[in-house]
Amino acid sequence: MQLNKARIWLGGIAGGVVWVLWSFLVGKFIITDARYVAVQNAGLFLKMARYPYFVGQWLLILFIAAIIVAHLYAWARQTLGPGPGTALKIGVLVGFVAGFPLNFAQATWSPVDRMFPLGWMLDMWVGAILATLVAGWIYKE
To answer: Phi and psi of 140, rounded to 5°?
Structure first.
């Protein structure tokens, strides 16, 4: 069976938009700007990013991740069947791998407020789920 590559890309881009919005909400309401300023002032985070235009690069990474989960959904639906259940499974699995292990280690060993690794984990885990659900909703053979 041929995959509809145009719909994969469209779903991935739409999923990327949703993931970016989710990431913004996590940063503003879970982690918060005040926490970032506090850890920067405490010397635990750099005040200037090591990589130029970090925010733009982060957004690009989220779009790439969303396009990847859109591909995974399109491939998986051939064996698991189409629909939100399959999209949810893919999103949960990818989100866990992307968000949990490293942030568990950060929460365990990093001296920063545990809201940082919690927020980062939720950004990746819930973001992957939302992006995959959107991509699955858009994908048609």
So the answer is: -135, 145
Distances from the Cα of 115 to the Cα of 25, 34, 53, 62, angstroms? 14, 12, 24, 21
Of 85, 76, 79, 80, the C-alpha closest to 129 is: 85
CA atoms in the 13 A half-sphere facing the CB of 48? 2
Kindly write down the DSSP assignment for every residue of the chain, as one continuous string. ----HHHHHHHHHHHHHHHHHHHHHIIIIII-HHHHHHHHHTTSS-SS-SSTTHHHHHHHHHHHHHHHHHHHHHHHHHHH-SSHHHHHHHHHHHHHHHHHHHHHHHHHH-SS-THHHHHHHHHHHHHHHHHHHHHHHH---
Closest to 66 measured CA to CA, from 8, 120, 25: 8
CA dihedral of residues 101, 79, 20, 119 (deg, nearest 10): -20
Q: What is the pLDDT of residue 1?
A: 75
Give every residue of the chain whose pLDDT is below 70, as ranges. none
**Statement: the pTM of the whole predicted model exceeds 0.70:** yes
